[in-house]
Design goal:
The complex is a heterodimer of chains A (307) and B (190). Chain A is α/β, with parallel strands linked by helices and 307 residues long. Chain A contains eleven helices and nine strands. In chain A, strands 7-6-5-8-9 form a five-stranded parallel beta sheet, covered by helices on one side. Chain A has a four-stranded parallel beta sheet with strand order 2-1-3-4, with helices on both faces. Classes of the chains: A alpha/beta (307), B alpha/beta (190). The interface between A and B is medium-sized, with 24 and 22 residues.
């Protein structure tokens, strides 16, 4: 593996080995006094973010630092990007400084893919527009596997703004490859045009889908990508597609609730559900660090990786 | 044309039989009791074949220790993330790490591996151990010492010293991983 650009590029064996590596790392670091591994000593990892982010960037930074890599954070707002430097020139500048890995978040689909053609560094896609967010899908898969034992045959319902969601796209690719049965629930306006070609079933009735779900994944309503009326009002959206306490009661006893964050409490998920024991949202965040450590390990530990 | 496996089988010799392995492990268990009692001993096996060896030694120590105050428990210490050759090899999968209840702080830790060769694995294990806590002392037990050390490291308990050439390979087979107990020597496959 040379880059991690999309969940759709992974095969089941690679994805499973990433999940296993993350489990081992979690185990190895559990309850340790020194949460630091020497594995990536001397490697330089750059996070290059053209969109705002709290958890993804912090998660990558912590993952890199716990493996002893040198982590440099560059955000578009405070860099030469704001002076008009192109993505390609920024890529060349970073690799000329000796970056071994560039973690890129960008508002345009395909940005990470383009960057991988320009730089000798390993490129990790940390979200490209409405396209993909592969490490999010991997951490969701890790969380689901932790709570459901396996993904094979498990029924996962993904709810909300599928149209604008790179999280949903990456999860559909990864979770279906790992054997999960996926059901998307969204207002008709928030399902993408090509959804009939996806390995999923779709519907508009959340109440009917919940009793058959082993897990439900709530998506954030991405107001920043919405230019136009996709639904009449926030209140109406919450009424039909929000996970309220009464609705969550329809889930089977063992079912878990996921949310990639940041959460809009009262919109797609009620505060009571978000704080309930079946919500595994903070678990997702912890798993995110281990998944990103696993990805960095697979890309950077061996010089022969990807050759 | 002779098949590759055929030539290898022909060039392969058994150095220790199943009975020899059992006797050797038993003797090592006695030596560890003499060297450690009374103490809390933690036997940490290095994957892959150090792990069943550590369990066997802990079981034998339990059987033999009798009146002495030695409590031996086994665990697993994966050292992959601490290796000094990660860059030179394809990505290695990680193995589990499990420490016994109570961890390694103030315990007598015995690192257990099947073959002692360059000493680099043991160095990595010492580095890994340091991140898990502060043992009272650390010792090393190996089933086979084949020589060719590249670091100033020696074992406290050696099952069998087997002088070898670098062109030879030592294979330790254990029932838990290979369906039978034996130590084999063969020419290194080209």
């Amino acid at each position: 593996m040379r880059h991690l650009l999309s969940a759709a590029d992974l095969d089941a064996a690679t994805a499973t080995s990433l999940l296993d590596t993350a489990d081992r790392l979690k185990e190895a670091l559990l309850g340790r006094e020194v949460r630091k591994l020497p594995t990536l000593r001397g490697r330089t990892v750059v996070t290059l973010f053209y969109e705002s982010s709290t958890r993804t960037r912090a998660s990558f930074e912590i993952a890199g630092k716990q493996m002893s890599a040198d982590v440099v954070n560059v955000s578009a707002g405070s860099s030469s990007v704001s002076k008009g430097e192109s993505l390609r020139d920024t890529a060349l500048t970073l690799s000329a400084m000796g970056a071994d890995c560039v973690i890129l978040r960008h508002p345009s689909a395909g940005a990470a893919h383009r960057m991988s053609e320009w730089t000798p560094a390993h490129v990790i896609n940390a979200g490209d527009g409405m396209h993909e967010h592969p490490t999010q899908a991997l951490l969701d898969a890790a969380t689901l596997r932790e709570h459901l034992g396996t993904l094979d045959g498990r029924r996962i319902t993904i709810v909300g703004d599928v149209l604008h969601s790179r999280v949903a796209r990456s999860n559909v690719a990864l979770l279906s490859m790992l054997g999960a049965q996926l059901h998307l629930v969204a207002p008709p306006t928030l399902l993408p045009a090509g959804v009939s070609g996806w390995p999923v079933t779709t519907g508009h009735d959340l109440d009917a889908a919940l009793p058959q779900s082993d897990a439900v994944m709530m998506l954030r309503v991405q107001a920043e990508r919405m230019h136009g009326g996709f639904f009449p009002s926030a209140r109406e959206y919450a009424t039909w597609y929000g996970l309220s306490e009464a609705r969550a009661a329809r889930l089977p006893q063992h079912a878990v609730v996921l949310h990639p964050g940041p959460m809009l409490r009262g919109m797609e998920i009620s505060a009571a559900v978000a704080d309930s024991p079946r919500a595994v949202i903070t678990g997702q965040v912890s798993n995110g660090v281990h998944i990103r450590m696993a990805v960095l390990y697979h890309l950077l530990a061996s010089q022969e990786a990807g050759t | 044309m002779t098949s590759r496996t055929g030539t290898e089988a022909a060039g392969q010799r058994e150095l220790l039989s199943a009975a020899d392995v059992a006797r050797t492990v038993a003797r090592m268990a006695h030596e560890i009791i003499e060297g450690t009692a009374p103490a809390r001993a933690v036997l940490l096996g290095i994957p892959s074949r150090g792990v069943p060896l550590a369990h066997r030694l802990a079981t034998r120590i339990g059987e033999f220790s009798g009146a002495t105050d030695i409590i031996a428990t086994a665990g697993i210490l994966d050292i992959t993330l601490y290796r000094d050759d990660l860059r030179r090899r394809p990505t290695r999968p990680l193995e589990p790490t499990t420490l016994p209840e109570g961890g390694v702080d103030d315990a007598l830790v015995v690192l257990v591996d099947d073959v002692l060769f360059s000493g680099r694995t043991v160095r990595a294990a010492l580095d890994a151990l340091r991140d898990h806590g502060r043992p009272r002392a650390v010792q090393l037990a190996v089933l086979v010492d084949r020589g060719h050390r590249e670091l100033p490291i020696r074992a406290d308990y050696v099952g069998k010293n087997l002088p070898t050439s670098r062109e030879e390979e030592i294979a330790v087979l254990l029932e838990e991983t290979d369906d039978r107990d034996a130590v084999m020597i063969r020419r290194r496959a080209q």
